[in-house]
Design brief:
One of its GO terms (molecular function) is ATP binding. α2 runs antiparallel to α3, α4 packs parallel to α19 and α14 crosses α15. The protein has 19 helices and 19 strands.
Length: 561
């Protein structure tokens, strides 16, 4: 089975099962060979083994040493041949053939296999922990709702009610606090927006507001950058204009709201963040989340130049995250991929539980899960839908008990995904995980099979994965499962075929040895049967394509065959 173990230090589910079967068959074959050897030797030395003319092959006192040794060697050769026939040495050939065949076919289905054994491991998967953005959704984000100056903007790019000062701050925050960029070609060509899907959506919305990206960035200088942090769910930047320093923050709406002590009105006036206003913001966030929108908040904080470290000391400067002033919130729509509902329904019928792990808040995660079909009841509560922070605060034993029940995890960090994978594996699941970011690498490596995204995935994620989904589509994962189950089914057919021939040959030889003291198939004939059975059988049965019936069976456990 070295052909499918490769450089992995851990046995795959198929390898575990096949090693058990091969060991069992080998023990049976060896036992039969020893029994045949004992019977033939006993009959030979007692004179009950006869030549074709009816005379005994061994006569005590009348046989030379050479003749006696030749008779014993002949009997021993038959016993060894029985062991050779019984041991399934053709099994590695069949496994390698079906894995290689499946790998080439999966490439046509937009799945690039990086590790050969991943073909069959996916067929044993009992649960899939999937990202939302780009996998379950189209990854085509656009800003469809906006709430600035304490009022809803309809349409979201309508800034007529906002004062020039507020609009300037919004545009400056968008242009400076981003990891994306906008290339503005000459002539009538449309600007090219780059960056993550969320960044592209916000930058495109900024263009609709009248933002001139290069001009806006040139008006102020960046003093310090706090890149987006997946744990804190926010990113910030400190910029210096003509007379003052602004620290802009952008991130998860409900988390940014917790850090705000005031908000900016449509006229640019600073208002205190009263409990009533907090409730109004929360209501708007909840309404957007229920509509399956990703909520991103913008806030800022003015700083005195005296509070800014000198240039040679800014490397250790931690941007202030408290006492922020809320600018507003946008709702970003990312529609579900066509066919995702059917794919998830197919997984459910196949006994595979799909779990969505996302950084969005629980309301948005719930709405997307309902739209995709992961959830069927909108009123579910913990632990079916759980927040990453709640999950990580549980003990190891509690996490294992809760993990089985989780369908959706919102506001999750990469470490939360890793903890979920470990808990599910400890519960005996064969876990498949999708990921596209550098921070997803530990979870991809820990899972039984890691699937990275070919379009949005980073190189680190791809290097840590077993299969690369070239089109970032969840439906491709389902096709990978079908091919994985086909691998198992083909190997199962080969084992059934081989066992049929093995058992028939063994029974014929044992019965004949006990009854007549001879075997009907000599060593050469048994080896010919073994050669034909292994090679031609493997070629015929290892290359059968998958069929729809494979997705109507429950997944196979680690220890069964």
């Amino acid at each position: 089975m070295a052909s499918i173990s490769e450089d992995s230090g851990e046995e795959t589910p198929l390898q575990v099962r096949l090693n058990g079967v091969a060991t069992f068959i080998g023990i049976i074959g060896l036992s039969v060979a020893v029994a045949v050897l004992v019977v033939l030797l006993a009959r030979y030395f007692t004179g009950h083994t006869y030549n074709p003319d009816g005379s005994p092959q061994y006569v005590k006192g009348k046989m030379g040493v050479g003749e006696t040794i030749r008779g014993v060697v002949k009997i021993f050769t038959v016993a060894v041949t029985i062991v050779v026939v019984a041991v399934p040495e053709g099994l590695p050939l069949a496994v390698t053939l079906t894995l290689a065949f499946s790998m080439r076919k999966m490439m046509r289905d937009k799945a690039l296999v990086r590790r050969l054994s991943a073909c069959e491991t996916m067929g044993s998967a009992t649960t899939i922990c999937s990202d939302k953005t780009g996998t379950l959704t189209l990854n085509q984000m656009t800003v469809v709702e906006a709430y600035f100056g304490g009022e809803k903007m309809d349409p979201p790019d309508n800034t007529q009610k906002l004062s020039a000062a507020v609009s300037t701050m919004i545009i400056e925050g968008i242009a400076q606090n981003t990891s994306g960029s906008i290339f503005e070609p000459e002539g009538d060509q449309a600007p090219e927006v780059t960056g993550s899907p969320t960044e592209k959506a916000i930058l495109s919305w900024g263009l609709q507001l009248g933002m001139k990206f290069s001009e806006t960035r040139s008006k102020s200088s960046i003093l310090q950058v706090f890149p987006f942090n997946s744990e804190k769910k926010r990113g910030g930047v400190a910029v210096q204009g003509d007379s003052e320093v602004h620290v802009y923050w952008k991130g998860a709406a409900e988390l940014i709201l917790q850090s705000c002590t005031s908000w900016i009105g449509t006229d640019g006036s600073k208002q205190s963040m009263t409990p009533e206003k907090v409730g109004e913001f929360k209501k708007f966030i909840e309404d957007m989340a229920v509509a399956s929108l990703r909520c991103v908040a913008f806030a800022y904080r003015p700083c005195e130049m005296s509070d800014v470290p000198k240039e040679d000391q800014r490397a250790d400067w931690v941007l202030p995250e408290d006492n922020l002033i809320m600018l507003g919130i946008v709702g970003i729509k990312d529609p579900c991929r066509p066919g995702v509902q059917d794919s998830i329904r197919l997984c459910a019928a196949a006994g595979i539980k799909v779990r969505m792990v996302t950084g969005d808040n629980l309301q948005t995660a719930r709405a997307i899960a309902l739209e995709c079909g992961i959830l069927t009841d909108p009123n579910v509560s913990e632990p079916t839908i759980i927040e990453g922070k709640t999950f990580r605060e549980l003990s190891d034993l509690e996490r294992e008990e809760v993990a089985d029940k989780i369908s959706v995890m919102g506001r999750s960090s990469p470490n939360d995904k890793l903890l979920l994978v470990k808990a599910l594996r400890n519960r005996g699941h064969v876990v498949a995980v999708t990921g596209d970011g550098t921070n997803d690498a530990p979870a991809l490596h820990e899972a039984d099979i890691g699937l990275s995204m070919g379009i949005q995935g980073t190189e680190v994620a791809k290097e840590s994965s077993d299969i690369i989904i070239l089109d970032d589509n969840f439906a491709t994962l389902v096709r990978v499962v079908r091919w994985g189950r086909s691998v198992y089914a083909n190997i199962q057919k080969f084992i059934q075929f081989q066992l049929t021939v093995n058992v028939a040959a063994l029974i014929i030889n044992v019965v004949s040895a006990v009854s007549s003291g001879d075997v009907p198939l000599n060593a050469v004939q048994l080896l010919w049967v073994n050669l034909i059975m292994d090679t031609l059988g493997a070629l015929a049965l290892a290359t059968e394509p998958p069929n729809n019936h494979l997705m109507q069976r429950p997944p196979v456990g680690r220890g069964s065959l």
